[in-house]
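Incident log, structure service

09:12 report received: a user says their structure output differs between two submissions of the same chain.
09:20 pulled the input from the user's history:
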Amino acid sequence: MDEYLQDMKVLKSSEVIRCKAAVAWEFNQPLVIEEVEVAPPQEKEIRIKIVATGVCQSDLYFLCKCLNQTMFPAVFGHEAAGVVESIGPGVTEFQPGDTVIPLFMPQCRECRLCKSPKTNLCVNGSAGRIDERSFERSRISCRGRKLLQFMGTSSFSEFTVVKEISVAKIDPAAPLDKVCLIGCAICTGYGAAVNTAKVEAGSSCAVFGLGAVGLAAVMGCRAAAASRIIAVDINPEKFEKAKVLGATDVVNPNDHSRPIQQVIQEMTGGGVDFSFECIGNVEVMRSALESCAAGWGVSVIAGWTDMQNFSSPPIQLMTGRKWTGTLFGGFKGKDGVAQMVRAYLDRKLMVDEFITHNLRLDQVNEAVELMKNGRWCDPKLRCSLHD
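09:34 re-ran on a clean worker, output below:
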């Protein structure tokens, strides 16, 4: 941790920090490296030096696909790790120098949702809502304008300010340039299997989409001792990594003339026990559901989209299949992230295998293009951005 602290200037918590950030001024346009002003943390807020951040498909979705123009200008990034630089009044859980992962799923531990073991939601979570107040609450500005803090985090900035309830303290022994991915993709996919679906030992599973979330779902199915794990993707370059993480079978829908759900039904003699949609494609959501066994099959939606509605004939559910979804893999933010980092340090969780590029912050547009065009190498999931 000392190596991260050495680069931090000694500042009073009341001072504005000027630093570099990748700013999205417009929809579907390249990010611009700008000098931004990061305000001091206010009541129950924490200012963090970002050490490393992943580039997630959700960043790409809102930058290039979602038609909500009200969210610009913005600083994207929500899958990160860093060091507490300063704390605001009323903060009791953190001190400067703590190693942390910012959370887009807060955990206040006090509301009715946080106290319930049935959900990882928190009444203080925004769940993607964006309005004028989102800009008012932002602590990042540039050229006299407030910039939206994407998912309340904005990790494509050298410094950011987040709420105390949206930060997880982690073991200082954890390498921040690796465990940053636990802040979104790995928890989402892994938790979809072990928390949401509750995959059973000896069961069969199908995972649709082998990005980081999908591969983490494969890993979660293996951790739950599934006996057969079918990895599905149209990019065969991803298959070897899927096998490393636990896949027993790989299927490319383009290799078949029939719908993929029919292929999987035939492969398994009636359908899998559990399926996971990890893309955010409503047609694939239906395919995943219909790949499940009648009577008891469970299909989990882990991929994000809000551009289309999903549907399937009611008989698919009337015959006993269950269709559900997951946010952050069902992990409660603070508790789950610390638990997953500990599992990584104990060598019970694979993380390094998910990183294929290490790029500087000023190379963020290269990272976006890698994600957008699928031009990854051996094989390809996340670009860890650092300064």
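09:41 both user submissions now match this output. Likely a transient worker issue. Closing.
09:42 reviewer note: Confidence is low (pLDDT under 50) at residues 377-382. The CA atoms of residues 53 and 80 lie 4 Å apart.
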